[in-house]
């Protein structure tokens, strides 16, 4: 977070930040945009709480054996 904040404050160049975070310059720019838009909450992954679409519901099928 401090590296992204330093880029926002123009204390660090995006290329230097990308090297420190082991990311591409483009990905670093995306993080900076998300940080400027939503602050620290913008850096949190958005899909970690969502359930996958192919999840099966816990339904118990009745036993039909004769």
Account of the protein in words:
This protein is an all-alpha fold. The protein has one domain (1-66). It is built from 3 helices and no strands. The model has no long low-confidence stretch (mean pLDDT 81).
SSE topology sketch:
Layout: H1 2-8, H2 14-21, H3 25-38
Give descriptors for this structure.
single chain, 66 residues, 3 helices, 0% strand, rod-shaped
Class based on secondary structure composition and strand pairing: mainly alpha
The proportion of residues forming helix, as a percent range, comes to 40-55%
The helix-strand sequence is: HHH
In round numbers, the mean pLDDT is 81
Our estimate of the beta-strand percent is under 5%
Shape: rod-shaped
Biggest sheet layout:
none
> What's the total count of β strands?
0
Structure annotation, total helices: 3
Runs in which pLDDT lies below 50 for 5 or more consecutive residues are none
Tally of discrete structural domains: 1
Radius of gyration: 21 Å
Distance between the termini: 63 Å
């Amino acid at each position: 977070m401090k590296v992204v904040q330093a880029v926002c404050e123009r204390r660090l160049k995006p290329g230097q930040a990308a090297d420190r975070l082991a990311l591409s310059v483009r990905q670093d720019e995306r993080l900076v945009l998300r940080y400027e838009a939503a602050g620290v909450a913008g850096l949190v992954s958005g899909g970690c709480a969502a359930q996958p679409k192919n999840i099966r519901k816990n339904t118990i099928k009745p036993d039909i054996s004769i």
